[in-house]
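EI: anyone free to look at a 162-residue chain?
SC: sure, send it
EI:
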Amino acid sequence: MAKAYIALGANLEQPKAQLDAACVALEALAETGSFQISPYYASVPMGEFKQPDYINAVASIETQHSPLELLDALQAIEQQQGRVRLQHWGPRTLDLDLLLYDNLVMTSERLTIPHYGMKQRSFVLVPLFNLSPELILPCETPLKSLISAKLRSELQELDSDH
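SC: here you go
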């Protein structure tokens, strides 16, 4: 059994509803009773494209799926919710990124764990901290050492009625 952390993001077609639906799908992938979700946060999009703000969160699950099986399942959820990959960092109905899988460090053509950009992204770090404030990353960096007031100020926590 592995503990996996998954970043959720959406900024098209009712983003909050997209994250809510993704939570239902992720809970179905998780071992019974292991699904947890952070509060939802509004964040400014990355990249050069003019697009709506995102809603982001991080989920944790315990799973018997291998990392690549989990990636396949996450991509299937994205497709079921209308994800179309048109532009890097472009708008999307749903983005699910596998951030961490236990303490595994791996790089393959399809998957890099830990997720390559997670240490620079407030919309990943802050929700991850909500779930696991004592988490030590595979590089042995305590998550709490990456959290700052400036980082928190980049996000707006939304009402937590999910």
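EI: The helical segments are 15-29, 67-80, 122-131, 149-153.
SC: 👍
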